[in-house]
């Protein structure tokens, strides 16, 4: 299978996997802290690295029905959040193409 190539990020604050420290996103790519995940608080990011996307599926969420893909750390394969592929509500379309990282699954890394 080979070794996984990880992308390293640089910035004032870097969020990464709480299990293996793989980098996911910087504070600069954060869109909002006002989200709820399966494990509590969650953050919306414009882009993330070092994740593997699962298959798309339709999911009923508090803001309506969305097509989402679970995302997994490429290093340790832990599920860390999801990606919004499609929002049916016009007011929710700003989420399309963005990523949720669950606060319980990430930490600030060096």
Automatic annotation (TrEMBL):
Yippee domain: residues covered: 13-110
Statement: the UniProt record of this protein carries the keyword Nuclease: no
A Pfam family recorded for this sequence: Yippee-Mis18
One term of GO molecular function: metal ion binding
InterPro entries assigned to the protein according to its UniProt record, in alphabetical order: Yippee, Yippee/Mis18/Cereblon, Yippee_fam
UniProt keyword annotations, A-Z: Metal-binding, Zinc
Family listed: Belongs to the yippee family.
Listed name of the protein: Protein yippee-like
Gene source species: Serendipita vermifera MAFF 305830
